[in-house]
């Protein structure tokens, strides 16, 4: 029977039968693959429009060049940000050499052809034709940003480097000095490669126990100090982000209270040193004296402990050597200490041990004791997981329904490719390689959930939103395991399956049972859930017959860098950060834009085109939807974001995590943000509800709880605030008048046929102090308005308002007259004011300030294009500095009101809220990062603060 385009058939074909009409010599066991996205006879590259661009990435703070490569080739649909990040991070070869990659085609071919060749070699495909179709489908999906592999794949696959494909690692350490030193070494090797690792220290005996020699043990916290120093050294030795690591300790370890307090005590030290005048900001000169800052800490709690908290009973701390109780504490008191430490400094997080191991597919091999640094990968010690994430917005149809069938087929392709990668992958240690090849852990996930929910008219914190998220996640994991079972019939189940068959089957039944409990509310989630139910039933039948190829299939990762590569509005399972975002422009500069998801959401909610325009315009001005014209109040919640005027309540984040957790093999990378005014009791409530709702891990962050954050606002406790009020001094600007005799210049100009004169007076020492504009006939309304305007600008300049502030506000302002000018440096102007302030910038601002505004003389532009030194008369700037400021491969113009003061969406949000956000500055480009799962992501260059 002939299948239509958009369908795929993957079935086991046994020898000697081959594809119909093909020679038996070509037949072998493997999968049959049919096209979904592609058309026979047309290569995916031939279906897109390609263009050449120049990538010049600069440090936002000082203008220095971080990276430059010109003439790179990408589809015209890819954004500037995606092009910059892929070019700078993923293209291989030394810049400026012939070996350097310069096209997205080269990058995709390098990776995809390696995967397909390994698939052919290992018997995954029935015929060469099936392998070719698989190659074209993967190529199309990567080319059109349908999904992305994790960063190590792009770094390493198809190069002369080790073929490391995994980003997530779990190590182990035993109670011997040799094992502890091996831990330091293995962790260092993983950090050197740009990945992260986690481990559980609970096997190390406590400081309350004796050594065989009769002395007292040091305890795990003391060894954490050495590992932390090692991680910090590797970071400072040249890495572009801090070492990413997770340290876990069981709640019944006798040193658990010391472990809980480690980072909280350091935070007290930071405050004391700061108040004494030391530089304790992030990256400050004195910040290196602080310990334990290179790791995320988590306490692994048991059901027994949580029940002792619930019933206010005693809880025993047990010896590591014989398991006897050596100390008894009140469970509730220990839980309060944990919550208070998290309230003070965001650490430790919490991991729910019994829940994690209840969903463990390989329990006969060993327990799950730890996680990777971002807490999404949880499996056996000395193992790894490679990740890939799908862009959910690519499955949203024009009628705003989710294409579940297409999503299912996409998951099948991606999970197959991920499994193939383990066949050729290298690993940082032999033990990790052995475990990973035996259990073949995969981590398929998604990005853009927040954008998808908003676009379909669902509030993130709503029953309907959670139902759609749960249905999509269930379909994803169900399809992944179904394909894993099909692969087991082709190339065999994972090596550890036979020993763990009963446990694996039990977990599959738990997933399917959880799917049956999902309550649907809307035709969108009903259709997705119906297909998910069918997929789980088929998967169970195939798996019971074949076994499964993979011990783990899915996680929800931060999707930081690859989320930017796919031009996603939201990362992982996160909601949108804010309704208004910061966008870099190809021609240089930036602009403020309303999220493109907002109009689609308004359309989904039934608003007319005129209403949508008015609401979007209101959001652009105010940054939120409160009191937006024509927007009904019951729809406000659809536009709630992680930050801003209407931010999602902390418990709303927890409820969303709980909605999808039952459909994830691993866990979820996410931090629940809490307002500064949140209490310790509220932290306790979140941690307790996380346990009751079946989460595997949970971390919180209370606004302004850390001192070491740049530009943090509202620091200090109530007493400090009251003290500050008592000492408050009011400062007022003082007008600096021009002397009677001052230098000046007059410029005649023509803009769009309108003639005028600009008179500018300066202070004798330095700086513009007044302007007068003659435009229109004397006595006309226009002439009067320009006189009044000139007077107000002049007074502002004399009161100290910087000229660059006015330039930023008035350049690119659009109104008539506009058009050609007679000025060789400014050939086109969008209005008279646009011309006047760009002319003033050229005459009175330094090159560095003008470069940030994208304003250059004709000589400077020629120097940039011709790669020569600027003509005489230009500010003393070398060519490299000039190149660092502009990417002029396309001419897009900015209408941003805050383009000089904001370098990222986080900074733009700070301007709207009037308060600083607790996020670090990127160590590569100086941009303020944004939250991404339990890590941070730089929108400027794609760097992350954790594993990617």
Strand and helix map with partners:
Layout (H helix, E strand, L loop, with lengths): L11 E2 L16 E2 L18 E9 L6 E11 L4 H11 L13 H18 L6 H16 L3 E3 L1 H6 L11 E3 L6 H16 L3 E5 L19 H17 L7 E7 L5 H20 L20 E6 L1 H9 L2 E5 L6 E6 H15 L3 E4 H6 L24 E9 L12 H21 L5 H10 L2 E6 L1 H7 L7 H29 L5 H20 L6 H24 L13 H6 L14 E5 L5 E5 L2 H8 L4 H14 L27 H12 L9 E4 L5 H13 L4 E6 L15 H9 L17 E8 L2 E9 L5 E8 L5 H18 L4 H8 L8 E5 L2 E4 L2 H13 L2 H7 L4 H9 L12 H5 L21 H9 L16 E3 L2 E3 L11
Parallel strand pairs: 6-7, 7-8, 8-9, 9-12, 13-14, 17-18
Antiparallel strand pairs: 1-2, 3-4, 5-13, 6-13, 10-11, 12-18, 15-16, 19-20, 20-21, 22-23, 24-25
Helix pairs in contact: 2-3, 2-11, 3-11, 5-6, 7-9, 8-9, 9-21, 11-14, 13-18, 14-15, 14-16, 14-20, 15-16, 18-19, 24-25
EC number: 1.17.4.1
Catalytic activity: a 2'-deoxyribonucleoside 5'-diphosphate + [thioredoxin]-disulfide + H2O = a ribonucleoside 5'-diphosphate + [thioredoxin]-dithiol
Protein name: Vitamin B12-dependent ribonucleotide reductase
In short:
This protein is an alpha/beta fold. Helix content is 40%, strand content 15%. Keywords: Cobalamin, Cobalt, Disulfide bond, DNA synthesis, Nucleotide-binding, Oxidoreductase.
């Amino acid at each position: 029977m002939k299948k239509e385009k958009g369908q795929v058939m993957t079935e086991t074909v046994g020898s000697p039968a081959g594809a119909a009409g093909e020679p038996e010599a070509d037949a072998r066991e493997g999968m049959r693959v049919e096209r979904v996205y592609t058309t026979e006879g047309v290569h995916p590259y031939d279906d897109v429009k390609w263009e050449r661009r120049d990538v010049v990435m600069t440090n936002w703070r000082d203008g220095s060049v971080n990276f430059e490569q010109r003439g790179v080739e990408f589809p015209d649909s890819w954004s500037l940000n995606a092009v910059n990040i892929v070019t700078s991070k993923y293209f291989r070869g030394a810049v400026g050499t012939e070996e350097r990659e310069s096209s997205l085609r080269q990058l995709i071919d390098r990776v995809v052809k390696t995967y397909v060749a390994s698939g052919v070699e290992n018997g995954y495909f029935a015929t060469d034709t099936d392998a070719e179709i698989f190659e074209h489908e993967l190529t199309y999906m990567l080319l059109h940003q349908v999904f992305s592999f994790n960063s190590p794949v792009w770094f390493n696959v198809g190069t002369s480097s080790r073929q490391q494909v995994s980003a997530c690692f779990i190590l182990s350490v035993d109670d011997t000095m040799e094992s502890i030193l091996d831990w330091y070494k293995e962790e260092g090797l993983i950090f050197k490669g740009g990945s992260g690792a986690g481990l559980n220290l609970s096997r190390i005996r406590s400081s309350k126990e004796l050594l065989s020699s009769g002395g007292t043990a040091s305890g795990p916290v003391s060894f954490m100090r050495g590992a932390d120093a090692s991680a910090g050294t590797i970071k400072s030795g040249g890495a572009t982000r801090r070492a990413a690591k997770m340290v876990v300790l069981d709640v019944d370890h006798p040193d658990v209270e010391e472990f809980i307090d480690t980072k909280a005590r350091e935070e007290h030290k930071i405050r004391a040193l700061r108040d004494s005048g030391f530089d304790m900001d992030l990256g400050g000169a004195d910040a290196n004296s602080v310990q334990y800052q290179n790791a995320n800490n988590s306490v692994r709690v048991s059901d027994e402990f949580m029940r002792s908290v619930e019933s206010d009973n005693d809880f025993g701390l047990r010896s590591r050597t014989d398991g006897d109780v050596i100390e008894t504490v009140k469970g509730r008191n220990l839980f309060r200490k944990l919550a208070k430490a998290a309230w003070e400094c965001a650490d430790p997080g919490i991991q729910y041990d019994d829940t994690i191991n209840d969903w463990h597919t390989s329990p006969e091999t060993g327990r799950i004791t730890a996680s990777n640094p971002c807490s999404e990968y949880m499996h056996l010690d000395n193992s790894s997981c490679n990740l890939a994430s799908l862009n959910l917005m690519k499955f949203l149809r024009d009628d705003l329904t989710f294409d579940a069938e297409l999503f299912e087929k996409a998951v099948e392709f991606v999970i197959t490719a991920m499994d193939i990668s383990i066949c050729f992958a290298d690993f940082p240690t032999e033990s990790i390689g052995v475990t990973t090849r035996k259990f073949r852990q995969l981590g398929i996930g998604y990005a853009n959930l927040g954008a998808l929910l908003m676009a379909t008219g669902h509030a993130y914190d709503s029953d309907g939103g959670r139902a759609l998220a749960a249905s999509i996640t269930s379909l994803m994991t169900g399809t992944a395991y179904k394909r894993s079972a099909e692969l087991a019939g082709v190339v065999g189940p994972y090596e550890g399956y036979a020993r763990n068959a009963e446990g694996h089957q039990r977990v599959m039944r738990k997933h399917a049972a959880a799917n049956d409990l999902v309550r649907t509310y809307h035709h969108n989630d009903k259709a997705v859930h119906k297909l998910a139910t069918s997929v789980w039933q088929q998967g169970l039948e195939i798996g019971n017959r074949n076994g499964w190829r993979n011990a783990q299939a899915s996680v929800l990762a931060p999707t930081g860098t690859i989320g930017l590569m796919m031009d996603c509005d939201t990362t992982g399972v996160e909601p949108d950060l804010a309704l208004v975002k910061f966008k870099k422009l190809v021609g240089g500069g930036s602009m403020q834009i309303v999220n493109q998801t907002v109009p689609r959401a308004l359309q989904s909610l039934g608003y007319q085109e005129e209403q949508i325009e008015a609401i979007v315009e209101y959001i652009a001005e105010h940054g939120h939807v409160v009191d937006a014209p024509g927007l009904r109040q019951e729809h406000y919640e659809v536009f709630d974001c992680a930050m801003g005027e209407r931010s999602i309540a902390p418990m709303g984040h927890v409820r969303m995590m709980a909605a999808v957790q039952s459909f994830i093999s691993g866990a979820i990378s996410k931090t629940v943000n809490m307002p500064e005014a949140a209490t310790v009791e509220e932290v306790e409530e979140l941690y307790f509800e996380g346990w009751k709702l079946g989460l595997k891990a949970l971390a919180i962050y209370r606004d302004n709880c850390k001192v070491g954050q740049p530009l943090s606002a509202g620091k200090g406790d109530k007493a400090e605030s009251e003290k500050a009020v008592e000492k408050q001094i009011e400062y007022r600007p003082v007008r600096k008048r021009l002397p009677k005799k001052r230098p000046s210049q007059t410029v005649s100009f023509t803009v769009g046929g309108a003639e005028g004169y600009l008179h500018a007076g300066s202070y004798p020492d330095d700086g513009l102090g007044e302007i007068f504009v003659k435009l229109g006939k004397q006595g006309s309304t226009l002439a009067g308005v320009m006189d009044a305007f000139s007077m107000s600008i002049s007074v502002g300049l004399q009161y100290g308002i910087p000229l660059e502030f006015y330039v930023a506000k008035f350049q690119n302002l659009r109104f008539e007259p506009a058009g050609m000018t007679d000025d060789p440096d400014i050939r086109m102007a969008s209005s008279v004011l646009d011309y006047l302030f760009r002319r003033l910038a050229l005459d009175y601002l330094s090159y560095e300030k003008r470069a940030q505004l994208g304003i250059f003389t004709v000589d400077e532009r020629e120097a940039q294009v011709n790669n020569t030194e600027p003509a005489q008369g230009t500010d003393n700037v070398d060519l490299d500095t000039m190149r660092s400021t502009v990417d002029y491969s396309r001419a897009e113009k900015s209408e941003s009101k805050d383009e000089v003061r904001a370098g990222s969406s986080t900074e733009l949000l700070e301007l709207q809220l009037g308060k600083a956000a607790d996020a670090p500055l990127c160590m590569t480009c100086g941009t303020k990062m944004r939250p991404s799962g339990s890590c941070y992501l730089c929108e400027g260059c794609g760097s992350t603060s954790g594993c990617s």
